Amino acid sequence: MTDLISKKMIVLDLDVSNKDEAIETLARKIQEEGRLNDFDGYIKQVKKREEEFSTAVGFDIAIPHGKCIHVKKASVAFARLKNKIKWSEDESVKYIFLLAVPDSEAGDKHLQIIAQLSRNIMRDEFRRKLEDSNEIDQIEKVLEL
């Protein structure tokens, strides 16, 4: 995932009160790296997807995503929240991986990213490192797996 994420798209102990605020904060990080064509269009797509079906995947983790023309370059932004927030009626989250994938790569690239993240999320060691790492450099190394 080294080409998908940069240090500037990793936020530790993010203090937000709801899902929309978390998504917008992470999307802004992707935008600041020049990876979106249209911030508002991308946000609209992510929120629409989230309304259709929650992206909480268990283990206090959510993987919201947008596959659309508003994305220039496939990206993953990550946040570890200061406090858990309610993500869906049944789940709260503390870790968020926000995916942005251009329409042109929506099939393969999107599935590859989700598959790799899913494999990692299932590993206790991966989740422990997300919680215990105190530096962005450490998190970046964890996400390079």
From TrEMBL:
It comes from the Bacteria. GO terms for cellular component: membrane. Residues 3-145 form the PTS EIIA type-2 domain. CDD domains: PTS_IIA_fru. One of its GO terms (biological process) is phosphoenolpyruvate-dependent sugar phosphotransferase system. InterPro entries: PTrfase/Anion_transptr, PTS_EIIA_type-2_dom, PTS_IIA_fruc, PTS_SugarTrans_NitroReg. One of its GO terms (molecular function) is protein-N(PI)-phosphohistidine-sugar phosphotransferase activity. Keywords: Phosphoprotein, Phosphotransferase system, Sugar transport, Transferase, Transport. Pfam families: PTS_EIIA_2. NCBIfam families: fruA (TIGR00848). This is PTS system IIA component, Fru family. It comes from Caloramator quimbayensis.
